[in-house]
Amino acid sequence: MTHTGEQKIQWAQQYMPVLNAIRERFEKEKPLTGHRIGMALHVEAKTACLVRTLAAGGAEVYITGCNPLSTQDDVADALREGGIACYAQRGCNTEEYYAAIDKVLDAHPTLTIDDGMDLINRVHLDRRDALPGIVGACEETTTGIHRLRAMEADGKLEFPVIAVNDTPMKHYFDNVHGTGESALASIMLTTNVLLAGRHVVVAGYGYCGRGVATKARALGARVIVTEIDPRRALQAHFDGFDVMCMEEAAKVGDLFITTTGNCSIITGRHFPLMKSGAILSNAGHFNNEIEIPWLAEHASAVEHRDGIDTYVIDGKKIHLLAEGRLVNLATPKGMGHPIEVMDLSFAVQALSVEYVAKHGRELAAGVHDVPTEIDEYIARLKLAAVGATLDALTAEQEEYMCSWNHGT
Ligand SMILES: NC(=O)c1ccc[n+]([C@@H]2O[C@H](COP(=O)([O-])OP(=O)(O)OC[C@H]3O[C@@H](n4cnc5c(N)ncnc54)[C@H](O)[C@@H]3O)[C@@H](O)[C@H]2O)c1
């Protein structure tokens, strides 16, 4: 009988044509031979497909989680049974979380892959013994890139890192469609409530927020957006959403989803304004968008259900999903982004890792873009996989687009 983790991995693999094509080439060319890859990512089925692709390329792979609640233990077991060093465990505490990152660093990786930058942070601050061997790294998410750019600005980043998140083939699809669909799916599976007719408040109208807002509206929700950036707020307005500050939105919202990557978005100023039964969730990287310590301090009682903590405050019930952690991954039923989306994101990861393996020593310490050729190549592979055909520029068009003397 096949292990449930192995079944999940095989299920995902069948819908990952782009990563599979890369894996076939890696098996033949072995571009990662001699490299040890240290990873801190959400350990679930799609990630396992990336791990196996990198191993097929000749690398030794060491992996742990990048969030205490996002690991799927059966998938972690399946990776271990397949000979991968995997230290991730669902529900670990902070000490165990960093101890597992340390185990990855004990292998002295030559390349690293992060989602949120906890591993790179650890190696620069506490595990400098592992620093000299690292040729370069890749970072998966917006929050990790923010932290890396801050580190670079302070002159503290000591090796090159490819900003996988920032390339179109990642954030146009992963952040928008991936977070949009999976956050809502996870909320619906956890709460069993109807979105149609509900006031859904989406905090932040960036890539993730736009995905969540658009897909919630498609399900019949009445969506309100909160923002701090006037251009993004106006974009939300022209996209047909109500825009208001959180203090106003707190009074009308039935379901709240934070997607800002910033801290203290829903706080003690807002909870007392909310209706009883309000549901709070976060899809941003860290669990600091909702002020959970305030809830804990002011609640007269807390009830725990699977994936839901209910805080009773002045007789009102405020429900918090997944302890304020990434709702699409951290609820017991959260499966993370849809497979097809991760096919693209992890194809970018695999080819960026190959690029760093080849060119890392020539790159300066700092944050680097994914080369455009990699991005376009992945888009072409995916278009071929879905059977779409593309036009090509004619010589006349190419000349026209590059000239300045064709006027009226
Ligand atoms: N859940 C997932 O699986 C998943 C996937 C991708 C990214 N992320 C994470 O989601 C977060 C957002 O990513 P993104 O790519 O959408 O970033 P983004 O920068 O495109 O969007 C963030 C938006 O939040 C707004 N914002 C900042 N502070 C705010 C505040 N106080 N109130 C209201 N709005 C505020 C910003 O103006 C911006 O428009 C990051 O933490 C990222 O790492 C999560």
List the helices and strands and how they pair.
Elements: H1 4-13, H2 17-29, E1 36-40, H3 45-56, E2 60-64, H4 73-81, E3 85-86, H5 94-106, E4 111-114, H6 118-125, E5 136-139, H7 142-153, E6 160-163, H8 168-191, E7 199-203, H9 207-218, E8 222-226, H10 230-238, E9 242-243, H11 246-252, E10 255-258, E11 278-282, H12 292-298, E12 301-305, E13 308-313, E14 316-321, H13 327-330, H14 339-359, E15 366-368, H15 372-385, H16 395-402
Parallel strand pairs: 1-2, 1-4, 2-3, 4-5, 5-6, 6-15, 7-8, 7-10, 8-9, 10-11, 11-14
Antiparallel strand pairs: 12-13, 13-14
Helix pairs in contact: 1-3, 1-4, 2-3, 2-14, 3-14, 5-6, 8-9, 8-14, 14-15
The protein binds nicotinamide-adenine-dinucleotide.
What does this structure look like?
With 408 residues, the protein is an alpha/beta fold. The chain is 45% helix and 16% strand. It has helices at residues 4-13, 17-29, 45-56, 73-81, 94-106, 118-125, 142-153, 168-191, 207-218, 230-238, 246-252, 292-298, 327-330, 339-359, 372-385, 395-402; strands spanning 36-40, 60-64, 85-86, 111-114, 136-139, 160-163, 199-203, 222-226, 242-243, 255-258, 278-282, 301-305, 308-313, 316-321, 366-368. It has an 8-stranded mixed β-sheet, with helices on both faces. Strands 3-2-1-4-5-6-15 form a 7-stranded parallel β-sheet, sandwiched between helices. Helix 8 (168-191) crosses helix 9 (207-218). The termini are far apart. The mean pLDDT is 97. The structure holds nicotinamide-adenine-dinucleotide. Residues 141-143, 171, 174-175, 179, 203-209, 226-229, 232, 259-262, 265, 283-285, 326, 328 line the site of nicotinamide-adenine-dinucleotide. Pfam families: AdoHcyase, AdoHcyase_NAD.
